Every structure is written in structure tokens, then in C-alpha cells.
């Protein structure tokens, strides 16, 4: 891969406002850089199932989804086995009959699926689609090199996204704990009871009303700390 391509992917990482933007940048760049590629998509296993995280302009709708539904297809096999899958002419392909019929109907004749090494994921692939038989053959080395570079960027982006989600979960937990503590304090002052009894009352009310404890406490805190009435100064 040229240094220009590497710089482009680094710049995509910098300017990307999120994982979605980055991945879309990568698939569009793949179409520009890999000879014969008319479309590109990224497959990653998340939550126990394969998903298309991004697709370039020109990617036929449902092209990857048909593979996931059937559990069969070049990007499925590449992601699950870690072995590159190349179909130079789908009209002569026998490995994935259900997928092949659909792909041909969308105008796809040639497919190359290159496995991606993504930390923490059990399967991933970068999928290239061509509109003429054998059109991706001469660009396979370029496609592999691009996939290796894209795999590093995707891996980094997924780690960043995971850290952001973890931080958001911590913030949510802290906010929940704070509002529950405030509600306990309100009940302690109002009913002249200790913290244990106040928490138990809140839990019983939560179960009785079928409302999450955090939400119930939030309602109580909002009611007590709401704006003063018009008659007050």
C-alpha cells in the first residue's frame, strides 16, 4: 500500500467524529484504491452475530444480510474461518448457491472477502465487490494490504468506542447512585428514619409501582427540588 493511502487512513481516524464515520471513510477509500472494486463493506461479529458495520456508496442493499441470514457466503466464510474467499465469477460459483443467485440479481459478478484481525472480536472481514468476472483478480495484493491497514484502524476505533461506552456506563452508574442517595436523604429527613429503612421503603415502592428504583428516586428528588410556586419570594 502506498504511503499516500496510509496517510489517508490516518487522517480518517483523526477527522472521524465516530466509528460510523470512520468505517464509511474506509469503505469508500477501498473502492478508490482497489482495482476493480465497485463496492466494499465491513463485516464484524458483535454480540454473537455477524453485522455489516459500514458499506460504501454503490453497495447493493441486502447483499451482506442475505449471507448472514443463510449462514453462508464469502464474507461469512472469511470472517468465521479466517481464510480469504475469492469468487472470480459468481455465475460459475457453486459454494453459496442461495447467496450467489441474489448477488447476480444485484449485478455483482466477482467477490473478494479478506479476513480482518480485530482484537476482541471472533470474526471480521473486508468485502470487495466487482461488476465484471475476474475484475478483482489483479488487485488482490492491494486489497490485502488495504485490509491489513484498515484492520488496524478498525481495531483502534472499536477500542476507543468501547472505552467511551465504559465511561458512559460509569457516569450513568454514578448518577443513579447520586439520585438514590438524595432520595434516601429526603425520606430520612421527612419520616425521621435511618438510611436502611429509607432504602427499603423506596425499594418496596419501586416494586409496587413497577418503576425502576432510579426513576422513582429521580421523580421524588425532582418533586422536592422543583421550582418554587408563584406565591413564594
Q: How do the SSEs run, as a string of H and E?
A: HHEEHHEHEEHHH
| Proportion of beta-strand residues | 5-15%
Mean pLDDT: 81
Give the termini distance in whole angstroms.
71 Å
Shape: elongated
Gyration radius from CA atoms, angstroms: 26 Å
| DSSP strand count | 5
Strand order of the largest sheet: 2-1-5-4-3
Structural class of the secondary structure composition?
alpha+beta
In helices, the fraction of residues equals 55-70%
Summed up, the helix count is 8
Provide a brief overview of the structure:
It contains eight helices and five strands, in the order ααββααβαββααα. The termini are far apart. It has helices at 3-15, 19-33, 63-70, 74-81, 97-105, 140-191, 195-209, 213-224, and strands at residues 39-46, 49-55, 85-87, 110-115, 124-130.
Structure keywords:
single chain, alpha+beta, five-stranded antiparallel sheet, 8 helices, 57% helix, 13% strand, disordered C terminus
Descriptive notes:
This protein is an alpha+beta fold. It is built from 8 helices and 5 strands; from the N terminus they run H-H-E-E-H-H-E-H-E-E-H-H-H. It has a 5-stranded antiparallel sheet with strand order 2-1-5-4-3, sandwiched between helices. Strand 4 and strand 5 form a beta hairpin. Helix 6 crosses helix 8. It is elongated.
List the helices and strands and how they pair.
Blueprint: H1 3-15, H2 19-33, E1 39-46, E2 49-55, H3 63-70, H4 74-81, E3 85-87, H5 97-105, E4 110-115, E5 124-130, H6 140-191, H7 195-209, H8 213-224
Antiparallel strand pairs: 1-2, 1-5, 3-4, 4-5
